[in-house]
Amino acid sequence: MLLAMSSTAVVFKLLSDRGEMASPQGNVAAAVLLFQDLLVVVCMLLLPVLAARGDSSPSLWQSLGLGTGVVVLLLVVGRFVVPSVLFHVVRTHNRELFLMLLVLLCLGSSALTAALGWSLALGAFLAGLALSESEYATQTLAEVLPFRDTLSSLFFVSVGMLLDLGFLVANLPLVLVTVLAILALKFVAGALPTLWAGYPLRIAVLTGATLAQIGEFSFILADRGLALGLLNRAHYQTFLAAAVLTIALTPLFIAVGPRLADLLAALPLPERWRTGYAAAESIEKKVSARNHVVIVGYGLNGRNLARVLRVVDVDYVIAELNPETVRQARALGEPVYYGDCTRPAVLEHLGVGAARLLVVAISDPASSRRIVQLARHRNPRLYIIARTRYLSEVKELRRLGANVIIPEEFETSVEIFAQVLREYEVPRNLIADLIERVRGDQYEVLRDFKVPAMKVVLPYANVLEKMDIKSCWIRDGSPVEGRTLAELNLRAATGATLVAVRRGRELLLNPGSDLRFQSGDIAILIGDEAQVERALGLLDSSPEEPSENR
């Protein structure tokens, strides 16, 4: 149990910083980590059973039955009771009371599990599961999120304080051997199932390197095991020292994962291991198309691009590493192939040498760089478009041969500034020129804060503040009734402009000079205050006092 757990907090943080959360190895690692976190409940329930001594100790079924009952009770309370209580608390609009109730639920659940001889952490974990089923889960998360980093730091500080440095120094060979054994065992345990699931060797190696450390819940299990007598002090300290070192080595292990994958790929291994079992069918047939588009990755961007290319009748092929996604896409008739494009053989199979354009639409920076480099070497005339999440990748991808790099960070900022300029009535052609300049300079304009300011005139910024808009009702018997706009010569006589006329339910926008006024019309005028007043005098003059402007 201690060795099975990996560190969700550490791995998620590292993958997020490296931009690999949406990569194939990131998806597999995330699924395994979350499944491990859920299994902590089972492990906690089994610890008292493993520690049972003598005839007076509860049987396996008694312990599991009691534990299952408590878990079900907490989940039922969280599903049906907690939402009602939270509703009445939320109605008070008292944020402090809401937070106090959350703390009470967490501490109460922890106290209940502790009273049954289990861990406080198990109770807190179950309380979180119960609250996640509530309609107030989002607000709950918002309230506790500011405490996350602080409590996480305190947790690891506490673990560090438990470590006996004297024991570590005195037993350094034992600890180092234990660390190497844990890393090797967990690497294999993470890599082999990934390989058997159909992923290529490279993804399996990266997944194994990502999951090779000991997790946070293992410290809780070890502490509980020490209290129950399952571990003695020497075993506990050995495990603690080895676990801390595996977590400390995780960034290095993840960083060297790609090189380790290349070294293993160079060994005389079966081709199915290198490419993945799911690729066996795809590799047999080579793409024969020419001047086509090669799409790497069938995520949201890849699907949208494929849909557009299909509409305009442009040939394309898709490479994807998720076997289930490949199966579903093929069922829809998509020309999708399973394969790792970081391997030259896969790119050759996709016909990149005869292709006109390559679009790299994956969320794995390291793989994107390698794919661009291999594709450029294979086809110097190939037009390569690469999508990246972070700006830091732009220069390296351009150096490796990408023609266009689209960073998500700056595409978002481009859309934001375009919307802001539209709100300020900047001419649309000027906005289009700005966007074209930003993209044409590969986003250098936005990165260089010393670029000279562009002289942008906002022609409508203050215009509306100086304009006066008023309406006039055409009375029965009005002198203008039956006369056309041309006969009145309204614009020349008053300076105001008639922009619309409401006639019953109909709105006549920008009426022509042949418009003939009718009784009951509502004329909408625009101009400065003096111009509009003169126009109102013309349109609303009585027959007894004819206007001089008639």
What do you see in this structure?
The protein is α/β, with parallel strands linked by helices. The protein folds into three domains: 8-260, no CATH class; 283-402, NAD(P)-binding Rossmann-like Domain (Rossmann fold), CATH 3.40.50; 467-539, 2-Layer Sandwich (Alpha-Beta Plaits). Helix content is 60%, strand content 9%. The protein is built from 26 helices and ten strands. It has helices spanning 8-18, 24-50, 60-91, 95-115, 120-132, 137-162, 165-170, 172-196, 201-210, 216-227, 233-255, 257-265, 271-275, 280-283, 300-311, 323-331, 344-349, 365-378, 394-400, 408-423, 428-440, 444-447, 463-466, 485-488, 490-494, 529-539, and strands at 293-296, 316-320, 336-338, 357-360, 383-388, 404-407, 468-473, 497-503, 506-509, 522-527. The strands form two sheets. A six-stranded parallel β-sheet has the order 3-2-1-4-5-6, sandwiched between helices. Strands 7-10-8-9 form a four-stranded antiparallel β-sheet. Strand 4 (357-360), helix 18 (365-378) and strand 5 form a beta-alpha-beta unit. It is extended and about 105 Å long. It starts with 7 loop residues before the first helix and ends in an 11-residue tail after the last helix.
